[in-house]
Design a protein that fits this description.
The chain is of the alpha/beta class. Helices cover 42% and strands 18% of the residues. The two termini are 35 Å apart. Bound molecules: uridine-diphosphate-N-acetylglucosamine.
């Protein structure tokens, strides 16, 4: 049985991926400092899968502890690396925190992998590395030119991984996620942000009555209804892409970059309207000004992931929103009791 070490495994995408791994009969080791996540997510993943995973409450910045975990766990076959700071706005205010945490954390992790002869890694990258692309749907060979420190750290981590892979003959998969949304179909695990920066978690909280209204960030974009268009991808589909990437790395030790999206875009207004229909809630929305750094439209060309990983998105908008709403209504305070 293959053993996978998952950094940030208690987070939103991490927890869904841990569940997918357990369901696919992998052994799972999680390293998470719980700085932006909850142990309750791990408890629920174990409950849903009826399996146990090995959990270490530790920061990947602690190299000694990380080395010990690799030694203690023995025979780790591959790593999936999620642990990172991810708020765009905060990264502009505190760039050093982002560079320190994301870049140093990745370097420590790679050193520990090297010391333990672990040579496969799947990395949680983001479509944010494209900034404002010249063409949509965007392909993997488009220019990398992020527009904020968070995006810069993702681009730099990709480069560090590429160089490491080339030097040591490692298997590297860089998964560039578009806009992850939704929750597990049980409604037992989902996204639990302290403050929702992203559209769907915000709309969920408005629907639940936690917040009064959603502000639409700009109605004057060159898009059909004037609001921003994004490629939303169900978190379960995203989790499966990680499992497929692990399989790919077993067969092909080189660097692979994949867009993970559906190729289908929805506007802010379409998202809010569909949420209203599904939740049967009013969801007041007002128009506000554009948010700095936002692009009009971002869509994935995910042909490569389809061809090389045999992966494609299974879930549509309906499931994305209904699972997000199920998670929100079943857990009004997220993982807090
Ligand atoms: C954001 C991040 C991106 C990250 C991605 C995934 C920014 C600028 N970008 O992408 O780096 O990789 O999340 O987590 O934060 N919107 C509103 N009102 C809101 C919130 C959002 O109208 O209250 C609009 C946005 O303008 C955008 C769309 O909804 O058009 C989606 O926004 P969001 O969910 O924040 O994702 P991105 O900005 O695409």
């Amino acid at each position: 049985m293959s053993k996978i070490l998952v950094t940030g495994g208690a987070g939103y995408i991490g927890s869904h991926t841990c569940l997918a791994l357990l369901e696919a009969n992998y052994e799972v080791v999680v390293v998470d400092d719980l700085s932006n996540s909850s142990y309750e997510a791990i408890t629920r993943v174990e409950k849903l899968s009826k399996k146990k995973l090995s959990f270490h409450k530790e920061s990947i910045l602690n190299k000694e502890a990380l080395d010990q975990i690799f030694q203690k766990e023995k025979n780790v076959d591959a790593v999936i690396h999620f642990a990172a700071k991810k708020a765009v706005g905060e990264s502009c205010e505190k760039p050093l925190l982002y560079y320190q945490n994301n870049i140093s954390g990745t370097l420590q992790l790679l050193e520990s992998m090297k010391a333990s002869n672990v040579t496969d890694i799947v990395f949680s990258s983001s479509a944010t590395v494209y900034g404002e692309p010249d063409e949509v749907p965007v392909k993997e060979d488009a220019d990398v030119r992020p527009t904020n420190p968070y995006g810069q750290t993702k681009a730099m981590m990709e480069q560090i991984l590429k160089d490491t892979g080339a030097a040591y003959g490692w298997g590297i998969a860089l998964l560039r996620y578009f806009n992850p949304v939704g929750a597990h179909i049980s409604g037992d695990i989902g996204e639990d942000p302290e403050y929702p920066n992203n559209l769907l978690p915000f709309v969920s909280q408005v629907a639940a009555g936690i917040r009064k209204k959603v502000t639409i960030f700009g109605e004057d974009y060159p898009t059909p209804d004037g609001t921003g268009v994004r490629d939303y991808i169900h978190v379960i589909d995203l989790a499966h892409a990680h499992v497929k990437a692990l399989i790919k790395l077993k067969q092909d030790k080189s660097t692979h970059t994949y867009n993970i999206g559906t190729g289908r875009g929805y506007s802010v207004k379409e998202m809010v309207e569909t949420f209203r229909k599904i939740s049967q809630k009013e969801i007041p929305a007002v128009c506000g000004s554009r948010r700095e750094g936002d692009v009009p439209i971002l869509l994935a060309d995910a042909t490569l992931a389809n061809k090389e990983l045999g992966w494609q998105a299974e879930f549509g908008l309906e499931e994305m929103i209904s699972t997000a709403w199920k998670w929100q209504s079943q857990n009004p305070k997220g993982y807090k009791a």
